[in-house]
Design brief:
The chain is mainly alpha-helical. It contains three helices and two strands, in the order ββααα.
Length: 64
Amino acid sequence: MATVQGEDIKLENQGQQSLPKPPDSSTSIEDILAKKGVISSEQVAFVKAEAKRRQESTEKVIGL
C-alpha cells in the first residue's frame, strides 16, 4: 500500500513481468556479451588475453 497525495493506493503485480535483475557486478562485459550471443567464446578469450597483454581494461580493448 502506498500513499499518494493523501490517497491510499494498493500496488500489485498484475501479471506483469518483473524487471530483469542487473548483472552481477563481478560479471565482466565480455562474459555478458558472450552470454547474449554477441561474441563467441574465442573472442572472449582474445579480449581477455589482449587486455592482459596491453595491461588495460577489457572495456578499452572492446572499444567501449
